[in-house]
Amino acid sequence: MKKTAVLIGRFQPFHKGHATLLKAAGEIADQVLVVLGSANGPRNLRNPFTAAEREAMIRANFPDSSRLQFAGVRDYFYNDHAWVNEVREKVNQSAKGHHVLLIGHHKDFTSNYLSWFKEWESARISTGYDVHATGIRENFFRDAGRAASSPELSEATKTYLAGFAQTETYQTLKTEQLGIDQYKQAWAAAPFPPTFVTTDAVVLCAGHVLLIQRKKVPGKGQWALPGGFLDPHERIFDCVLRELDEETKIQVPKEELTAAFKKVQVFDHPLRSSRGRTLTHAHLFELEREKLPQITANDDAMNARWLPLMDVAQMEDKLFEDHFHVIHRLTKAGAKDR
Fold first, then answer.
1. DSSP 8-state class, residue 319
2. Does the bond joining 193 to the residue before it have cis omega, within 30 degrees of 0?
3. Which of the residues in the chain have pLDDT under 70?
4. Whole-angstrom Cα distance, residue 311 to residue 77?
5. Residues 6 or more apart in contact with residue 295 via CB below 8 angstroms
6. Distance from C-alpha of 15 to C-alpha of 154, rounded to nearest angstrom
């Protein structure tokens, strides 16, 4: 029976440890399926490269890549079962009756997914490299020249990154990296990493959801839910109402907003924010109006808009952090359960 080797990863960027796994997969299987994680989300410091860009980066490392196939899988921050099902679906489409061999290197908690596919044979391979893509990314966006001297990167990847560094996208992410560095430096003297508390408002009206466009890093220019950090002497519900008013100037009386409140849910994925561990309390408001209230962008928002809920599924790569998933879980807007 023919074999399909499956290599799952984000490859942000593709380094020599990844290359070792991919080479080993090609030596023991008839074809190799590279599953690209975080394929549909917005660009950020954790996922700066699109699925198409990562495929190009990997193919540049393996010029004879005729036996390589690629499939993108979106993030499911709050539904591991849905993520597993999508991976299975993509693998079954590619393998077509082949014996499936899951290739992997168990590094830390981010590799736990290797034990989630009991039906496939598993091959754990030592890469021989103690390399972490997070450090590579951080150094690259602080100074593109650092990638050129990185021993963890192949010449093909270095060439690809050098080209990427000439783009406007790189400059945007570099600004964000330097901003995050400065932000974290303010907390460097804390005895332990801080946990931040925020609120977000999911305001629905006449089949629309209220969004703002971020004015500052992180996520400058991306669309987001109105929200912000809890003040020291403020209750959480008061925070969400204050941030909603400050960023949108929504023309709805406080009493009407309070009556429209339906539920609150905490979103706490450890990797949801580049600023550090950030827990948000997302509040759902359902306004009983036929006409959309007037809004005006203000404070941390450069723009504000009412987006039809039916269009949320097309905004996955434009919504800040996990806000796509927040909107879906509170409203069920979007193509699939998350």
1. B
2. no
3. 106-111, 127-129, 333-338
4. 20
5. 210, 248, 249, 250, 251, 304, 305, 306
6. 7
Name the superfamily (CATH) of residues 3-168.
Answer: HUPs (3.40.50.620)
Which of left, alpha, beta for 196 (phi over 0: left; psi -120 to 50: alpha)? beta
* 16-28 and 51-61 helices, crossing angle to 10°: 70
Neighbour tally for 175: CB within 10 Å: 14
∠ Cα 324 220 240 (to 5°): 60
Listed by start position, the domains of the chain span: 3-168, 196-331
Q: Helix, strand, or coil here: 10? A: coil
Q: In this structure, are residues 71 and 33 in contact, taking their beta carbons and an 8 Å threshold?
A: yes
63-92: per-residue pLDDT in tens? 888 899 999 999 999 999 999 999 999 999
- Looking at the domain 196-331, which fold is it? Nucleoside Triphosphate Pyrophosphohydrolase (3.90.79)
pLDDT the model gives residue 131: 81
Instruction: Note the pLDDT tens digit of each residue in 267-322.
Output: 999 999 999 999 999 999 999 999 999 999 999 999 999 999 999 999 999 999 99
- pTM for the full predicted model: 0.91
Helices (H), the chain: 16-28, 51-61, 80-95, 133-142, 145-148, 155-164, 168-185, 236-248, 254-260, 323-331
